[in-house]
Amino acid sequence: MNFAKITQAAHYVPENVVSNDDLSKIMDTNNEWIYSRTGIKNRHISTGENTSDLATKVVKQLIENSGVDPELIDFIIVATVTPDSMMPSTAARVQAQVGATNAFAYDLTAACSGFVFALSTAEKLISSGAYQRGIVIGAEVFSKVIDWSDRSTAVLFGDGAAGVLLDNSGSQPLIIAEKMQTDGKRGGSLLSSYADIQTPFASVSYEGSNLSMEGRAIFDFAVRDVPKNIQATLEKSDLAAEEIDYYLLHQANSRILDKMAKKLGVTRNKFLQNMQEYGNTSAASIPILLSESVKNGIFSLDGQTKVVLTGFGGGLTWGTAIINL
Ligand code: ACO
C-alpha cells in the first residue's frame, strides 16, 4: 500500500507589511472597524513579486530542507486564483525555476478552497501508486485583483504562498476522511478576473475584472454550510470533534472561526489563527498556517497529530480533509 505523507512544509510572504493604520491613510477606514469585524491587523502586500515568484521561493525551501533532488519530483500543483498568466500556468513557471524537469505541473482554481482540493488530488496521485513524490502550493498575489477603491474588500486580503512536499513514505493514510463541495449556483457572490470578449465577431463586457464580494452572503455561507461539511467529514472519519488536535481553517475572519468553534462544540483554542498578521490570503492561508505551526513547534510532521483542514470561498467551493500530520 502506498500511503502519502507530508514530509515538509514551508511558507513565504512579501516583506512589505501594511497595517490597518497604513490603509486608513489611503482610504476611508480605520483600525477599529477592520480589527473588530475581521481580526485582521496587518497584511503583506507585494511590491512587485508575482504569484510564481512567491511559489518558487516556497518550493526552493521545500527542496532545500528535504535535500530531495528536484528531478525526482513527479508533479507540482499550484492552487491559485491570481496566476501570473493563464498560459503558461504558475505551476509551469515554478517547475522551470526550480529545475523539476521530470515533474508535470498545473494550476488548480478553487479560490480559498484551492489548497484543500489540491491536497486531496495529490494524495490520490500518490496513494494510487502512479507517482511517488509531489508538491502542493497555495499562492496568491491578491493585491493585483483587489479594487483598491472598494474599502469593503480592499482591507481584507493579503499576498503570500505556502505549501508541502509529499511522498509515498507514509505508514498510515494521510487523509482519514474528506468531503469536497461546490455550488456554482451561488458563484455570483464572489467574482474576479473576468475577461471581456472583444473580437471581430462579438463584443461582450462583464463586470468583475476586479474582485467583488457580497460580504454578508459569504459570511452566512461560511457559518451555515461549512460547519455542516466539517461535521459530515467527522462522521465519515468516526472521530469526535474533540478528538481532533487542531482545526486549520481558511483565515478569512476571526468571527467566522468563533462561530464555527461554537457550532462544533470545540474549544476555540484548537482553531489556530494567523489572519491578524496576513489577512485573507485565499489559497495560501491554510498552508501558511500549517507551515507556521510546524515552524513554531505547535505540532510536527511525525504522524501523531490529527488535523482538520477546511477551505471555503469563491465558486462557491468548500471542503474538509481530516489528516494525519
Ligand atoms: N472601513 C470602515 N467602514 C467600512 C469598511 C471599512 N473598510 N467597509 C465597509 N464599511 C462600512 C460599510 O459601508 C457599512 O456602512 P453603512 O452601514 O453606513 O452602510 C458598514 O461598514 C457595515 O458594512 P457590512 O458590509 O455590513 O459589514 P459586515 O459586518 O458584514 O462585515 C465583512 C463585512 C468583514 C466583509 C464580513 O461580511 C465578512 O467577513 N464576510 C466574509 C468574507 C469571507 O469570508 N470571505 C472568504 C472567502 S474570500 C475568497 O474566497 C476569495
TrEMBL record:
InterPro entries: ACP_syn_III_C, ACP_syn_III_N, FabH, Thiolase-like. The active site is at residues 112, 250, 280. Keywords: Acyltransferase, Cytoplasm, Fatty acid biosynthesis, Fatty acid metabolism, Lipid biosynthesis, Lipid metabolism, Multifunctional enzyme, Transferase. One of its GO terms (molecular function) is beta-ketoacyl-acyl-carrier-protein synthase III activity. Residues 234-324 form the Beta-ketoacyl-[acyl-carrier-protein] synthase III C-terminal domain. GO terms for biological process: fatty acid biosynthetic process. It comes from the Bacteria. One of its GO terms (cellular component) is cytoplasm. This is Beta-ketoacyl-[acyl-carrier-protein] synthase III.
